[in-house]
Amino acid sequence: MEETKTQILIIDLGSQYTEVIRRSLRYLGFKSVILAPEKSLEWIENNTPKGIILSGGSASVYDLDAPKIPKKILDFGIPILGICFGMQWLAYESDKSAIEKVKEGKSYGPVEINFNQNNKSALFENLKEQINAWSSHGDSVGKAPKDFLITATSKEGSVIEAMECVEKRLYAVQFHPEVEQTEDENIILNNFAGEICECVKDYSKKDLIREIEENTKKLLGTGVAIIGVSGGVDSTTLASILAPKLKDQLKAFFIDTGGMRKGEIEKVKEIAVKAAINLQIIDKYKEKFIREVGKTTDAEEKRAKFRAVYGEVFQEVAKSFKATHMIQGTLATDLIESGSAGNSALIKTHHNVDLNLGLKEISPLNDLFKFEVRELAREFGLEELVSKRQPFPGPGLYLRVIGVPVTEELLEIVREADHEVTEILKKHGIYDKISQTIVALLGVKTVGVKGDGRVYGYTLVVRTVETADFMTVKGFYLTPEICEEISSALVKHPKIVRVMYDWTSKPPATTEFE
After folding, report:
1. Which of 19, 84, 137, 512 is catalytic?
2. What pLDDT does 384 receive?
3. Ramachandran region of residue 267, left (φ > 0), alpha (ψ -120 to 50) or beta?
4. Which of 272, 352, 405, 456 is least buried, going by the fewest C-beta atoms within 10 A?
């Protein structure tokens, strides 16, 4: 479908969740486009969308450097939904005194939303009188501007959580309906797009594979592309989609970085056969990865050093194949966390984003989230080998040795611990219920007792989480019995004296420790 037919415009105001809004709309069957504020007005004039969504953002509406939303968007009569910062902007443009400046820190975390039964909103149709939602804001709307009705408040009634002016077709929520922690089952966005804006469903998952194939073929032209296949969901699924279409134009390879899980190379070979991918294994850089990454304990520096060697391997492989292009399995989450999507802030550097290796980059999955790629994997019969596998970071176990220089010995400790934990979770039938399991080694030694003797050893942290899109996660809590079994197994290693468990949500924590 041409962009001119896109029905919903999302104006990116700097939120980490902007792409999640688009993902949620896509899940509901509505196509949308994300644009920066300065590009939005011209697009609206040329395309006349049926609805506009203003994302959240970290700025304050009264800041000089706050995103400059064209006020003229209010003149078109197009329904507008303001989320978080978007709500504050709608209030501020109507009444500068409506904004209540933050005084004692931000409102951050879960909040109970009470919907106003006297001012029932079409936005909240088919929802209960109360829901739990996710809050992430500093300033808030202290009073509803003239002509606006308050449609929801926090449990205590201290925060205006939603307001609307039906006459002007303006709707606003202070919480984030797009994230998984808001327990509305996407009803709010569906009400806005489908009922208030009267959009027709225009996004079909059946068309996605064809779009990936055709767009990649068009971008590649007569060139030759390389693709690094890690054995994970993203790169393997992408290679499976493109291999039959590109044939000899696609050169797939696997890099043994030394930071892989136990038995990973064998598993990757098995997956490649199943997916009909002609795969070349490159293992001569393993020691260089360990040596370079082991020079620092800083998380960003480790990622940068891994990225440098990773790029070096890609350049050598590209040269050997006389490649003109590089195909990456980069997802929307990678771009967001790397600060490469819209106006989002840098969270962490990803090894596969903006490599600048002198090759033209093609990232066919950069509009998708993990659960969507898993669905594509199922389409290609990779259910058991790929789509059910838990994700694994590109730098691998290098990100799971924390606060101490990475060595081959420490990588082996984490590798074995990861395997032990995985086997225990599978034995209890809960591995497939967990979105990701992280086993990490903390570099600070603490005292312990082994063999009736006093020892100093490391601590292992086990982190289990569940999520749909990895933009937000919540802890997957293990039973005391499983925790005891895991702890007993891991402390058998002579250099491990403690095992801890981490179920912190994201935000504030990220999924990985580094």
Report:
1. 84
2. 66
3. alpha
4. 456
